[in-house]
Amino acid sequence: MTRTVLAADFGGTHLRAAVVDENGRVLARDERPTPTEATAASVTAEIVSLLRSVAPGPGAAPSAVCIATAGLVDADAGRVILAPNIPGFRNLPLTEPVAAALGIPAFIENDASAAALGEFRFGAGRGLRHLLHATLGTGIGGGLVIDRRLYRGAKGLAGEIGHIVIDPSGPRCNCGSRGCLEALVSGVAFAQRARRLLAKGKSPRLAVIAAGREPNGRDLLVAAREGDTAAEAEIRNGGHVLGLGLGSLVNVLNPDAVTLSGGLLGMGEMLLGPMRDALSSLAYGPASGTKVLLSELGDDAGLLGAAAVAFERLEDAGLRS
Amino acid sequence: MTRTVLAADFGGTHLRAAVVDENGRVLARDERPTPTEATAASVTAEIVSLLRSVAPGPGAAPSAVCIATAGLVDADAGRVILAPNIPGFRNLPLTEPVAAALGIPAFIENDASAAALGEFRFGAGRGLRHLLHATLGTGIGGGLVIDRRLYRGAKGLAGEIGHIVIDPSGPRCNCGSRGCLEALVSGVAFAQRARRLLAKGKSPRLAVIAAGREPNGRDLLVAAREGDTAAEAEIRNGGHVLGLGLGSLVNVLNPDAVTLSGGLLGMGEMLLGPMRDALSSLAYGPASGTKVLLSELGDDAGLLGAAAVAFERLEDAGLRS
């Protein structure tokens, strides 16, 4: 019988859990809305309760559990340092209480780093050696697989690709700096672009679509698809900027491929075409041919990523013992 | 007796060679001007001749030879793909003829990558695990040490940190893109900044210092040190932009430290002060405390880097056999 692990993905809107085998197959799964008014104790209890609801009965015990979560994570210490979108989730020791409750080794990982290892083990990055993964959603995250292993950096912070500066005179980022990739191309950034267009009266379709409320990135896409050229230009410019960011990182890292996941992929070729052009034009020498691959794990990237991290941690423990 | 290697650094102005031991001590050295009108055959002959001139006599034979060179290198294939500053140096198979002539295993490496491993083994990065090294000279190069080993990427191109985009509307870079780090802060970029100041009549001291000829980066520094505020502002802005570039890479890589080498370090705190401020303000969360260390190898970074690569290659061969 193949070994299994418990995996959880603790996102801004949903808390998902699953039993996953070594081939990346989901044997059982469940999800709940992310608790909105949470203390450290209630968050931990909610995670444990959801994990128990998917865990198989005695005799088929998973070998470990891993929780992927948004925000800064000290994976080695098992602590969430800062999860901006989840109230009360700050300097929270998470692995110790989860391990105690479930009686198996527990690990945590940043969700974008987990997604990178998930794509490498089970998805679009199978068989590659060096991988740069970008998660393109409300914010921009990233993860690195180097020499077939998740790369965490000195303090577990590696992969924060949303905070590379692309334009020092660009819009203010949530992190306090100006012109970060995330401030120029992300769900939040496209919503800002839409609001700016509307304020300037430059997008007649957008005014109709938003109909009096604040427009968001999805409205911008709908307007562009209906032929609004100003809306389309914003999305194409976002794709171009994304390509400059990813191309810069290709020049530094020279990965075998760049893999992409997240809701912004719904913008399709309007975003991805200019992204590919900018990336291959910026990437230096033979790196201009670096492949860009779309996620094969979709919404399950975080969940299967958590499982991939659990398996890698178990293998490392096996190697050390 | 300690093991030794032959090392060469093939730069734009000088060709240097040395015998180096496992502690990074230089036991013998020599140098010549880089040949200006060179064919593949004459370059190879010149390198072999210089290496022979430093090689010890029979009975104390070095175990391997490594040549560090500017430009794009396919280290695994032993080929220089492109060395823009050295005419005739293009798609040149280098390790095979050198190994045949000297009778020991021969390797090549990009000089900035070699410098990174040199600082890790023998210089400012000793004892660290993950290192980002930047060479700040006529151009901007870089190298990565990850998990205590030189990281080359998928095709040996990793570390091209001069070609991350910092400002898409910035000046044109030699690579064809706009606003690369190298186009904003490098020897070439500071010379451009000096020419622009002069053309605009904004720097009275610079006009005196350059005295009718084209001003360069050194003139800009002299003017700034003599109190020319426009010249100083250019250098401080360059430092700020450098900090944004290095801070971006710290967010992606989370290294234990950033090490710096190259002629621009001669600009001192006028460059490095704004660089440190921008880096630590941009770097995310606990990464804002990432150390910036100045090279301990100075002009020998490429040469000792080549030696470090030779020792790492020998160790790898030992592990595999």
The unreliable regions of chain A are none
What is the correct CATH architecture of the largest domain in chain A?
2-Layer Sandwich
Q: Which structural class best describes the helix and strand composition of chain A? A: alpha/beta
Report the β-strand fraction of chain A as a percent range.
15-25%
What do the pLDDT scores of chain A average to? 93
- How much helix is in the residues of chain A? 25-40%
Main beta sheet strand tally, sense and closure of chain A: 5 strands, mixed
**Number of distinct helices of chain A:** 10
Short structural summary:
With about 325 residues, the first copy, chain A, is α/β, with parallel strands linked by helices. In chain A, about 40% of the residues lie in helices and about 20% in strands.
